[in-house]
Design a protein that fits this description.
This protein is of the alpha+beta class and 145 residues long. The protein has one domain (10-138). Helices cover 37% and strands 35% of the residues. Strands 1, 2, 3, 4 and 5 form a five-stranded antiparallel β-sheet that branches. A hairpin with a 5-residue loop joins β3 and β4. The chain starts with a helix and ends in a 7-residue tail after the last strand. 8% of the residues are buried.
Amino acid sequence: MRRSPVIGQRRARGFTLLEAIVALVVFSMGAFALYGWLSTNIITLERIRDRQEVEAAMHSALDMVRRTNPMEVAAGQRQAGNLMVTWTSAPLTPPKPSVDQSGWPGFYSVGLYEATVRVLRDGEELQVFHVRQIGWKQVRAGGDS
C-alpha cells in the first residue's frame, strides 16, 4: 500500500493562535505609537491656540494704551468684554519743547514715557509687558485760523 504524502505532513491552513497573538501585539504597538503622536499634536495645538489668544489680547491692550496720552493720563484701566487692561506710565525723560521741521519751536511739549501694562481676562493675569511712547501737551496756540 502506498502512503499518501499528506498523511506524514501537516497541512497549514489559516493562522495559528500564536500567529494571531503576534499580529495583535504588533498592531497594538503601532496603535499605541500613533495614539501618542496624536496626543502630542493635540496638546501642541491647544498650546498654540492659547498663545494666539494671549497675543490677540496683548494687541488689543497695546492699542488701548497707544490711544492714551501718558502726559495727561499717567495711569488707568479700561474694560473690553472680558479683558481688563491696566497701565501705569512713568517719564523716562523730562518734557522738552518740540521743534518743527524748519527748527522753529513747536506748539507742544513732549516727553518719553514707559508704560507697564497688565492684561487680565476674567480676573486672571494673562500678560504683563512694557511699552515706550511719547506724551505731549500743547503749550502754545497755533497761528493758523
